[in-house]
Amino acid sequence: MMDIDDLSLRVKRAERAALARAITLVESTRPDHQAQARALITDLMPHTGKAQRIGLTGVPGVGKSTLIEAFGTHLTARGHKVAVLAVDPSSSRTGGSILGDKTRMGALATDPNAFIRPSPSAGTLGGVTRKTRESLLLCEAAGYDVILIETVGVGQSETMVADMVDVFVALMLPGAGDELQGIKKGLLELTDIVFVNKADGGNESRAKRAARDLKAAFHLLAPSNPHWNPVVLTGSALEHQGMDTLWETIGQHRKALDAAGELSAKRARQQIRWLWAMVEGEVLDRFKAHRDVKALAGALESAVAKGDLPASEAAQRLLDVKF
Ligand SMILES: Nc1nc2c(ncn2[C@@H]2O[C@H](COP(=O)(O)OP(=O)(O)OP(=O)(O)O)[C@@H](O)[C@H]2O)c(=O)[nH]1
Ligand SMILES: [Mg+2]
Q: What does pTM read for this prediction?
Protein backbone atom coordinates (compact mmCIF):
# COMPACT_ATOMS: atom_id res chain seq x y z
CA MET A 1 0.00 0.00 0.00
CA MET A 2 1.44 3.31 -1.04
CA ASP A 3 1.65 6.15 1.47
CA ILE A 4 -0.20 8.88 -0.37
CA ASP A 5 0.49 11.59 2.22
CA ASP A 6 4.18 10.91 1.95
CA LEU A 7 4.07 10.88 -1.86
CA SER A 8 2.14 14.15 -1.84
CA LEU A 9 4.72 15.75 0.41
CA ARG A 10 7.56 14.60 -1.80
CA VAL A 11 5.86 15.86 -4.96
CA LYS A 12 5.42 19.26 -3.28
CA ARG A 13 9.11 19.16 -2.39
CA ALA A 14 9.75 18.76 -6.11
CA GLU A 15 11.42 15.37 -5.77
CA ARG A 16 11.71 14.12 -9.34
CA ALA A 17 11.45 10.45 -8.41
CA ALA A 18 8.26 11.16 -6.48
CA LEU A 19 6.78 13.08 -9.41
CA ALA A 20 7.62 10.23 -11.76
CA ARG A 21 6.04 7.78 -9.34
CA ALA A 22 2.94 9.92 -8.95
CA ILE A 23 2.52 10.04 -12.72
CA THR A 24 2.92 6.28 -12.92
CA LEU A 25 0.13 5.99 -10.35
CA VAL A 26 -2.10 8.29 -12.40
CA GLU A 27 -1.36 6.26 -15.52
CA SER A 28 -2.22 2.95 -13.91
CA THR A 29 -5.51 1.37 -14.91
CA ARG A 30 -5.83 -0.61 -11.68
CA PRO A 31 -8.91 0.59 -9.78
CA ASP A 32 -7.05 0.73 -6.43
CA HIS A 33 -4.29 2.80 -8.04
CA GLN A 34 -6.87 5.08 -9.58
CA ALA A 35 -8.48 5.63 -6.19
CA GLN A 36 -5.06 6.49 -4.74
CA ALA A 37 -4.34 8.79 -7.68
CA ARG A 38 -7.59 10.63 -7.03
CA ALA A 39 -6.72 11.04 -3.37
CA LEU A 40 -3.28 12.33 -4.31
CA ILE A 41 -4.59 14.86 -6.80
CA THR A 42 -7.31 16.03 -4.44
CA ASP A 43 -4.62 16.63 -1.85
CA LEU A 44 -2.36 18.48 -4.28
CA MET A 45 -5.11 20.52 -5.92
CA PRO A 46 -4.42 23.70 -3.89
CA HIS A 47 -0.85 23.64 -5.21
CA THR A 48 -1.81 23.50 -8.87
CA GLY A 49 -2.74 26.12 -11.43
CA LYS A 50 0.30 28.34 -11.37
CA ALA A 51 1.99 27.19 -14.58
CA GLN A 52 1.70 28.46 -18.10
CA ARG A 53 0.10 25.57 -19.92
CA ILE A 54 1.26 25.48 -23.51
CA GLY A 55 0.05 23.08 -26.20
CA LEU A 56 2.24 22.29 -29.16
CA THR A 57 1.26 20.52 -32.37
CA GLY A 58 2.60 19.89 -35.84
CA VAL A 59 2.93 17.14 -38.40
CA PRO A 60 5.67 14.52 -37.96
CA GLY A 61 9.02 15.98 -38.92
CA VAL A 62 8.03 19.63 -38.51
CA GLY A 63 10.47 19.95 -35.63
CA LYS A 64 8.45 19.59 -32.41
CA SER A 65 11.16 17.70 -30.52
CA THR A 66 13.84 20.08 -31.78
CA LEU A 67 11.76 23.08 -30.77
CA ILE A 68 11.04 21.66 -27.32
CA GLU A 69 14.78 21.25 -26.82
CA ALA A 70 15.56 24.79 -28.01
CA PHE A 71 12.62 26.47 -26.28
CA GLY A 72 12.92 24.40 -23.12
CA THR A 73 16.59 25.14 -22.62
CA HIS A 74 15.95 28.80 -23.47
CA LEU A 75 13.46 28.90 -20.59
CA THR A 76 15.44 26.90 -18.02
CA ALA A 77 18.39 29.22 -18.69
CA ARG A 78 16.06 32.03 -17.60
CA GLY A 79 15.14 30.38 -14.34
CA HIS A 80 12.00 28.54 -15.39
CA LYS A 81 11.17 24.98 -14.53
CA VAL A 82 9.86 23.22 -17.61
CA ALA A 83 7.83 20.02 -17.81
CA VAL A 84 7.16 18.30 -21.12
CA LEU A 85 4.23 15.92 -21.56
CA ALA A 86 2.94 14.24 -24.68
CA VAL A 87 -0.40 13.04 -25.98
CA ASP A 88 -0.05 10.30 -28.56
CA PRO A 89 -2.89 7.79 -28.30
CA SER A 90 -1.66 5.92 -31.36
CA SER A 91 1.49 5.14 -29.42
CA SER A 92 3.37 5.56 -32.69
CA ARG A 93 6.23 6.59 -30.46
CA THR A 94 8.11 3.39 -30.94
CA GLY A 95 11.73 2.70 -30.11
CA GLY A 96 13.08 4.69 -33.05
CA SER A 97 11.15 7.80 -32.23
CA ILE A 98 12.10 7.78 -28.56
CA LEU A 99 15.74 7.21 -29.47
CA GLY A 100 15.50 10.14 -31.87
CA ASP A 101 14.06 12.28 -29.09
CA LYS A 102 16.97 11.37 -26.85
CA THR A 103 19.34 13.04 -29.29
CA ARG A 104 16.96 15.87 -30.17
CA MET A 105 16.18 16.66 -26.55
CA GLY A 106 19.55 15.73 -25.11
CA ALA A 107 20.28 18.95 -23.28
CA LEU A 108 16.76 19.28 -21.90
CA ALA A 109 16.62 15.63 -20.85
CA THR A 110 19.65 16.11 -18.60
CA ASP A 111 18.63 19.59 -17.39
CA PRO A 112 17.83 19.50 -13.66
CA ASN A 113 15.14 22.13 -14.23
CA ALA A 114 13.33 20.13 -16.85
CA PHE A 115 11.14 17.05 -16.62
CA ILE A 116 10.22 15.06 -19.72
CA ARG A 117 7.55 12.40 -19.72
CA PRO A 118 6.61 10.47 -22.86
CA SER A 119 2.99 9.85 -23.77
CA PRO A 120 1.13 7.26 -21.70
CA SER A 121 1.09 4.03 -23.68
CA ALA A 122 -1.74 3.48 -26.10
CA GLY A 123 -5.29 3.60 -24.90
CA THR A 124 -8.42 5.44 -25.82
CA LEU A 125 -7.88 9.12 -26.53
CA GLY A 126 -10.07 9.86 -23.53
CA GLY A 127 -7.90 7.67 -21.33
CA VAL A 128 -4.67 9.23 -22.56
CA THR A 129 -5.97 12.77 -22.09
CA ARG A 130 -7.19 12.02 -18.57
CA LYS A 131 -3.73 10.81 -17.65
CA THR A 132 -2.09 13.82 -19.26
CA ARG A 133 -4.39 16.31 -17.55
CA GLU A 134 -3.69 14.74 -14.20
CA SER A 135 0.05 14.59 -14.90
CA LEU A 136 -0.10 18.29 -15.71
CA LEU A 137 -1.56 18.99 -12.28
CA LEU A 138 1.14 16.88 -10.65
CA CYS A 139 3.87 18.80 -12.49
CA GLU A 140 2.37 22.08 -11.33
CA ALA A 141 2.28 20.86 -7.75
CA ALA A 142 5.96 19.97 -8.13
CA GLY A 143 6.70 23.59 -9.01
CA TYR A 144 7.06 23.45 -12.78
CA ASP A 145 5.96 26.84 -14.05
CA VAL A 146 5.93 26.04 -17.76
CA ILE A 147 4.19 22.91 -19.00
CA LEU A 148 4.57 21.99 -22.65
CA ILE A 149 2.12 19.43 -23.96
CA GLU A 150 3.09 18.00 -27.31
CA THR A 151 0.81 16.18 -29.69
CA VAL A 152 1.20 14.85 -33.20
CA GLY A 153 -0.86 16.74 -35.68
CA VAL A 154 -3.41 14.04 -36.34
CA GLY A 155 -7.08 13.80 -35.62
CA GLN A 156 -8.84 14.52 -32.39
CA SER A 157 -5.75 14.71 -30.21
CA GLU A 158 -5.19 18.36 -31.14
CA THR A 159 -8.64 19.32 -29.93
CA MET A 160 -8.10 17.42 -26.71
CA VAL A 161 -4.77 19.10 -26.05
CA ALA A 162 -6.12 22.54 -26.92
CA ASP A 163 -8.76 21.89 -24.28
CA MET A 164 -6.22 21.41 -21.49
CA VAL A 165 -3.89 24.35 -22.15
CA ASP A 166 -3.97 28.14 -21.95
CA VAL A 167 -2.33 28.74 -25.30
CA PHE A 168 -2.03 26.53 -28.36
CA VAL A 169 0.96 26.73 -30.68
CA ALA A 170 1.05 25.09 -34.12
CA LEU A 171 4.34 24.43 -35.81
CA MET A 172 4.34 24.60 -39.59
CA LEU A 173 6.77 24.12 -42.41
CA PRO A 174 7.88 26.88 -44.75
CA GLY A 175 6.17 26.22 -48.02
CA ALA A 176 3.44 28.55 -49.03
CA GLY A 177 0.49 28.19 -51.38
CA ASP A 178 -0.28 24.55 -52.04
CA GLU A 179 0.71 23.37 -48.62
CA LEU A 180 -1.54 25.94 -47.05
CA GLN A 181 -4.48 24.29 -48.81
CA GLY A 182 -3.83 21.20 -46.75
CA ILE A 183 -4.09 22.98 -43.43
CA LYS A 184 -7.33 22.15 -41.77
CA LYS A 185 -9.58 25.03 -40.94
CA GLY A 186 -10.24 23.28 -37.64
CA LEU A 187 -6.59 23.50 -36.70
CA LEU A 188 -6.42 27.20 -37.45
CA GLU A 189 -9.42 27.74 -35.22
CA LEU A 190 -7.64 26.09 -32.30
CA THR A 191 -4.38 27.93 -32.88
CA ASP A 192 -3.27 31.02 -30.97
CA ILE A 193 0.26 31.16 -32.32
CA VAL A 194 1.78 29.68 -35.48
CA PHE A 195 5.51 29.11 -35.54
CA VAL A 196 6.77 28.59 -39.09
CA ASN A 197 9.83 26.49 -38.38
CA LYS A 198 12.97 25.75 -40.42
CA ALA A 199 13.40 29.36 -41.50
CA ASP A 200 17.09 28.74 -42.00
CA GLY A 201 19.63 27.55 -44.54
CA GLY A 202 18.16 29.51 -47.44
CA ASN A 203 14.56 28.83 -46.45
CA GLU A 204 14.05 32.24 -44.85
CA SER A 205 12.13 33.86 -47.69
CA ARG A 206 9.90 30.81 -48.18
CA ALA A 207 9.14 30.91 -44.48
CA LYS A 208 8.28 34.61 -44.68
CA ARG A 209 5.96 33.92 -47.59
CA ALA A 210 4.31 31.06 -45.70
CA ALA A 211 3.83 33.36 -42.72
CA ARG A 212 2.23 36.00 -44.92
CA ASP A 213 -0.16 33.47 -46.44
CA LEU A 214 -1.06 32.15 -43.01
CA LYS A 215 -1.82 35.64 -41.78
CA ALA A 216 -4.11 36.08 -44.76
CA ALA A 217 -5.79 32.77 -43.97
CA PHE A 218 -6.42 33.86 -40.38
CA HIS A 219 -7.83 37.09 -41.69
CA LEU A 220 -10.42 35.21 -43.72
CA LEU A 221 -11.57 33.18 -40.74
CA ALA A 222 -14.09 34.70 -38.43
CA PRO A 223 -12.16 35.52 -35.27
CA SER A 224 -12.72 32.64 -32.87
CA ASN A 225 -11.46 34.52 -29.84
CA PRO A 226 -12.54 38.09 -29.05
CA HIS A 227 -9.48 38.61 -26.84
CA TRP A 228 -6.70 37.48 -29.14
CA ASN A 229 -5.86 37.55 -32.82
CA PRO A 230 -3.60 34.65 -33.82
CA VAL A 231 0.03 35.61 -34.33
CA VAL A 232 2.29 34.07 -36.98
CA LEU A 233 6.03 33.84 -36.23
CA THR A 234 8.97 32.44 -38.13
CA GLY A 235 12.09 30.88 -36.68
CA SER A 236 14.44 27.97 -36.54
CA ALA A 237 14.34 25.42 -33.79
CA LEU A 238 17.57 23.90 -35.07
CA GLU A 239 19.44 27.19 -34.81
CA HIS A 240 17.57 28.33 -31.69
CA GLN A 241 16.18 31.32 -33.58
CA GLY A 242 12.91 32.92 -32.51
CA MET A 243 12.68 31.39 -29.03
CA ASP A 244 12.60 34.80 -27.33
CA THR A 245 9.86 36.04 -29.65
CA LEU A 246 7.86 32.88 -29.07
CA TRP A 247 8.08 33.33 -25.30
CA GLU A 248 7.20 37.02 -25.57
CA THR A 249 4.17 36.24 -27.72
CA ILE A 250 3.01 33.60 -25.25
CA GLY A 251 3.37 36.26 -22.55
CA GLN A 252 1.32 38.74 -24.57
CA HIS A 253 -1.36 36.14 -25.10
CA ARG A 254 -1.48 35.48 -21.37
CA LYS A 255 -1.70 39.18 -20.58
CA ALA A 256 -4.50 39.73 -23.07
CA LEU A 257 -6.52 36.84 -21.67
CA ASP A 258 -5.81 37.78 -18.08
CA ALA A 259 -6.83 41.39 -18.61
CA ALA A 260 -10.21 40.21 -19.86
CA GLY A 261 -10.62 37.72 -17.00
CA GLU A 262 -10.59 35.12 -19.73
CA LEU A 263 -7.70 33.00 -18.48
CA SER A 264 -9.49 31.84 -15.35
CA ALA A 265 -12.79 31.64 -17.23
CA LYS A 266 -11.19 29.44 -19.88
CA ARG A 267 -9.71 27.13 -17.27
CA ALA A 268 -13.03 26.95 -15.47
CA ARG A 269 -14.80 25.96 -18.69
CA GLN A 270 -12.14 23.33 -19.35
CA GLN A 271 -12.60 21.86 -15.87
CA ILE A 272 -16.35 21.65 -16.27
CA ARG A 273 -16.05 20.00 -19.70
CA TRP A 274 -13.53 17.57 -18.24
CA LEU A 275 -15.88 16.72 -15.38
CA TRP A 276 -18.74 15.86 -17.72
CA ALA A 277 -16.52 14.08 -20.23
CA MET A 278 -15.41 11.73 -17.48
CA VAL A 279 -18.95 11.17 -16.23
CA GLU A 280 -20.18 10.52 -19.77
CA GLY A 281 -17.44 8.00 -20.45
CA GLU A 282 -18.07 6.15 -17.22
CA VAL A 283 -21.86 6.17 -17.46
CA LEU A 284 -21.69 4.78 -20.98
CA ASP A 285 -19.27 2.05 -19.93
CA ARG A 286 -21.48 1.03 -17.04
CA PHE A 287 -24.58 1.11 -19.23
CA LYS A 288 -22.98 -1.10 -21.87
CA ALA A 289 -21.80 -3.52 -19.20
CA HIS A 290 -25.30 -3.87 -17.73
CA ARG A 291 -26.73 -7.39 -18.04
CA ASP A 292 -30.04 -6.35 -19.64
CA VAL A 293 -28.33 -4.02 -22.11
CA LYS A 294 -25.91 -6.74 -23.13
CA ALA A 295 -28.80 -9.16 -23.59
CA LEU A 296 -30.65 -6.78 -25.90
CA ALA A 297 -27.80 -5.14 -27.76
CA GLY A 298 -26.83 -7.91 -30.17
CA ALA A 299 -30.30 -8.46 -31.59
CA LEU A 300 -31.01 -4.74 -31.79
CA GLU A 301 -27.72 -4.06 -33.56
CA SER A 302 -28.39 -6.68 -36.22
CA ALA A 303 -31.97 -5.50 -36.70
CA VAL A 304 -30.68 -1.97 -37.22
CA ALA A 305 -27.90 -3.18 -39.52
CA LYS A 306 -30.42 -5.08 -41.68
CA GLY A 307 -32.72 -2.11 -41.80
CA ASP A 308 -35.50 -3.97 -39.99
CA LEU A 309 -35.62 -1.45 -37.19
CA PRO A 310 -34.96 2.30 -37.17
CA ALA A 311 -31.94 3.25 -35.03
CA SER A 312 -34.14 5.63 -33.06
CA GLU A 313 -36.49 2.80 -32.03
CA ALA A 314 -33.58 0.51 -31.12
CA ALA A 315 -31.99 3.29 -29.09
CA GLN A 316 -35.23 3.84 -27.22
CA ARG A 317 -35.52 0.15 -26.35
CA LEU A 318 -32.01 0.24 -24.89
CA LEU A 319 -32.69 3.45 -23.03
CA ASP A 320 -35.77 1.90 -21.50
CA VAL A 321 -33.52 -0.51 -19.59
CA LYS A 322 -33.49 0.54 -15.97
CA PHE A 323 -29.95 0.48 -14.63
N1 LIG B 1 16.75 22.98 -41.04
C2 LIG B 1 16.05 22.72 -39.96
N3 LIG B 1 15.78 21.45 -39.61
C4 LIG B 1 15.04 21.24 -38.51
C5 LIG B 1 14.54 22.29 -37.71
N6 LIG B 1 13.84 21.75 -36.68
C7 LIG B 1 13.90 20.43 -36.84
N8 LIG B 1 14.62 20.10 -37.93
C9 LIG B 1 14.94 18.75 -38.43
O10 LIG B 1 13.76 18.11 -38.85
C11 LIG B 1 13.78 16.73 -38.51
C12 LIG B 1 12.57 16.38 -37.66
O13 LIG B 1 12.67 17.11 -36.43
P14 LIG B 1 11.93 16.63 -35.11
O15 LIG B 1 12.20 17.64 -34.08
O16 LIG B 1 12.27 15.22 -34.81
O17 LIG B 1 10.42 16.69 -35.58
P18 LIG B 1 9.11 16.21 -34.80
O19 LIG B 1 8.03 17.17 -35.16
O20 LIG B 1 9.41 16.03 -33.37
O21 LIG B 1 8.79 14.83 -35.48
P22 LIG B 1 7.96 13.59 -34.85
O23 LIG B 1 8.49 13.33 -33.49
O24 LIG B 1 8.23 12.48 -35.82
O25 LIG B 1 6.51 13.99 -34.87
C26 LIG B 1 15.10 16.50 -37.81
O27 LIG B 1 16.02 16.00 -38.74
C28 LIG B 1 15.50 17.86 -37.33
O29 LIG B 1 16.89 18.03 -37.22
C30 LIG B 1 14.85 23.63 -38.10
O31 LIG B 1 14.49 24.61 -37.46
N32 LIG B 1 15.60 23.78 -39.22
MG1 LIG C 1 9.28 14.40 -32.08
A: 0.91
